[in-house]
Design a protein that fits this description.
Layout: H1 11-17, H2 24-30, E1 32-36, E2 46-47, E3 72-74, E4 89-99, E5 102-114, E6 120-132, E7 135-148, E8 155-156, E9 161-163, E10 172-178, E11 189-196, E12 199-206, E13 209-211, E14 214-216, E15 219-222, H3 231-244
Parallel strand pairs: 2-4
Antiparallel strand pairs: 1-7, 3-4, 4-5, 5-6, 6-7, 8-10, 9-10, 10-11, 11-12, 12-15, 13-14
Length: 251
């Protein structure tokens, strides 16, 4: 992300010019996750641009996942997304696989808008549809948004990772995104969303800064839901986060 403004580099100055909220608690409240039926939902206006290379279909760190019983990764194509799969905005990335829930299609999309004051609002969405025995269900939907006064957020910043690390025949899927832009050298907030079936897990945090006169450590906060999950969930999520969220901590 380009730096728009550089003011005197003191800790107080950096926070005073930060044009976006750096409060992870409020960010968590901005998210909404729900489970709904896909039937009877009309498809909103969509764009059909090609999916960017940086967010192509899911990549797994272990090829052995494809051989697991009941789980098989498929090739995601934006052009082959059924018209009955409703989503908002333009598709940033997606993934497709088969597990015990049936044939799954995950869509991550973004829609930019303006609020009543003419300020830019960046919205990111995630949807998981599953088809089993000819019946389509929307297993979950997430939505997150931020008002940006300067730069826009980066959107989807990682590939969509899909694997069945605990061999329960229900695949985990996860990705990292950023919707909150910045105006200066302040820390940048990120989120990781992970699901196993309809169960959600998340990491919320931000990059740190380490410049003369100002040091702010990066943040990486795990949902309490990870406490009851298989250890492989937290390990996988932590590794993906570290790969795409830069940490500038002081040595």
């Amino acid at each position: 992300m380009m730096l728009k403004v550089i003011l005197p580099l003191t800790l107080a100055a950096i926070f005073s010019i930060n044009c976006t909220s750096f409060d992870n608690v409020s960010q968590a409240k901005a998210e909404s996750t729900k489970t709904v039926e896909a039937t009877g939902v009309s498809k909103p206006e969509t764009e059909t641009k090609e999916t960017p290379d940086a967010s192509e279909s899911s990549e797994s760190s272990s090829n052995s996942a494809n051989a697991q019983s009941g789980f098989k990764k498929l090739t995601f194509s934006q052009k082959s997304v059924p018209k009955s799969f409703a989503y908002e905005g333009k598709i940033l990335g997606g993934a497709k696989w088969i597990d015990a829930n049936g044939e799954n299609t995950l869509i991550v999309s973004q829609k930019d808008a303006k609020n009543g004051d003419g300020e830019k609002v960046q919205n990111i969405y995630g949807y998981l549809y599953a088809i089993k025995n000819g019946v389509t269900e929307q297993l979950w939907k997430i939505q997150d948004s931020a008002t940006n006064y300067c730069d826009s957020g980066k959107g989807l910043v990682s590939p969509i990772l899909v694997q069945d690390s605990d061999n329960d025949e229900i695949a985990e899927n996860l990705f990292v995104y950023n919707v909150q832009g910045n105006c200066d050298v302040s820390p940048v907030s990120y989120k990781l969303m992970m699901h196993s079936g309809e169960t959600k897990y998340a990491i919320r945090g931000a990059t740190g800064i380490n410049i003369p006169g100002s040091v702010i450590k990066s943040e990486k906060n795990f949902d309490v839901a990870f406490d009851d999950a298989p250890k492989s969930y937290k390990q996988t999520a932590s590794k993906l986060w570290d790969s795409y969220v830069k940490n500038f901590n002081a040595k």
